[in-house]
Amino acid sequence: MDNKINTVGILWMVLGILSILGAVFMVISGGAFMAGMHGTDQQAGGAIFAGVMWVIAAFVALIGIIEFLAGSALRKHRPWARIAIIVLSIINLLGFPIGTIVGIYSLVVLLSADAKPLFASA
User: Fold this and answer.
1) Do 105 and 71 touch, CB atoms closer than 8 A?
2) Is-contact 68 79, C-beta < 8 A?
């Protein structure tokens, strides 16, 4: 069971890194969009669009950081990490196909009877 929990932790750490990279890409895209709008009549609309992208990117980066930290803590059998990953897994079920697969696998592993004692003793 310890190997499965370790695998779930690594999966969430990878998802966290991918989320952070996606947020960086969104910020770069927002900057590129602003540069493309420079000197046009739609510059104000471009600034609003870029600002919205940056806010969304900050939210995605925050979620990525939470995913990474929870995955790392799960590998150390922290009880709060199990709860955090269960909540993130339920939310991630909507992210078809990768999020659904990782969410289902995480829920199956963390809600099993074998996993509960590992986190109760930590």
Assistant:
1) no
2) no
Contacts of 51 (CB under 8 A, 6+ apart): 30
Per-residue pLDDT of the chain (122 residues; tens, 9 = 90+): 889 999 999 999 999 999 999 999 988 887 777 766 666 666 677 778 778 888 999 999 999 999 999 999 999 999 999 999 999 999 999 988 999 999 999 999 999 989 988 887 54
User: Helix or strand or coil: residue 3?
Assistant: helix
DSSP character at residue 105: H
List the helix and strand counts (H, then E) for the chain.
5, 0
DSSP 40: S
Q: How far apart are the C-alpha atoms of 76 and 7, rounded to whole Å?
A: 12
**pTM for this model (two decimals):** 0.87
